[in-house]
Amino acid sequence: MKRVACVQMRSGVDEAVNIAAMRDMVREAAGQGATYVQTPEMTGLVQKDRKALFAAISVDRDNPVFAAASQLSAELRIWLHIGSTAVRLDGPAGEGKAHNRASVFAPTGERVAVYDKIHMFDVDLDHGESWRESAVYKPGTTAVVTQIDDTPLGMAVCYDLRFPELFRREAVAGAVVLSAPAAFTRQTGEAHWHALIRARAIENGAFMICAAQGGTHEDGRETYGHSLVVDPWGKIVGELDHDEPGVLVCDIDVAQSAAARGRIPNLKNARQFDLKIEGGAAAVERGAA
User: Which domain holds residue 244?
Assistant: First the structure.
């Protein structure tokens, strides 16, 4: 993994239109020499109306985003990471629920990794903005590290970025590049996007690659954009400093991860400890990882 790219999108409510936009920008990234290309969360569809969403999406085996990604990765001979798209759960047990699913495709077109977003964005923000992802999506239960050539990549999606233990588990398992493709809201992005990505990179001595949705979408939501690549020392390697669709291409040297971890060996220095809550009538003691 040497030249990497983030595809910044403004996905709307028409999956075919979004796939066409994805194809154009992935080809642009590959044309600039990127061998690993990442798209944002909800590449295939940004649709907050539940009924319309479920009318539009399909089960995994019929998903047109993944079919297009398989064809593109083989055509362009690249690693293509679909940051996520909505996939209807298969069978009666999945009725009325979906997965927010990421997938990585090898240069052969084969899908080599699947990750379902673990942490659901159930929040009440300022100015009346409220989200309940758990009403639509079934959370994943498994963190995933996959190989991009000889580089271990840790997978995550958007709100996962606020849960450092996920990234730590992946880093300890060997990931030297971590990812968080996202559709951050404008107000949370303005407040926290850069800080969170840089923190995850620094504390794990790993690159962070984060493709984003940006702008005002057809369903009315506003996302922050600002796709980022950050190195293991917390330095911003590249950024799309806006919310417009576009392509960010960066050269990275994964050896920087080992160098950063050598200087600050916090992954090795981590220790098990207990937590004691003192004071009051009922002090509580419990173990902590």
Answer: 3-264
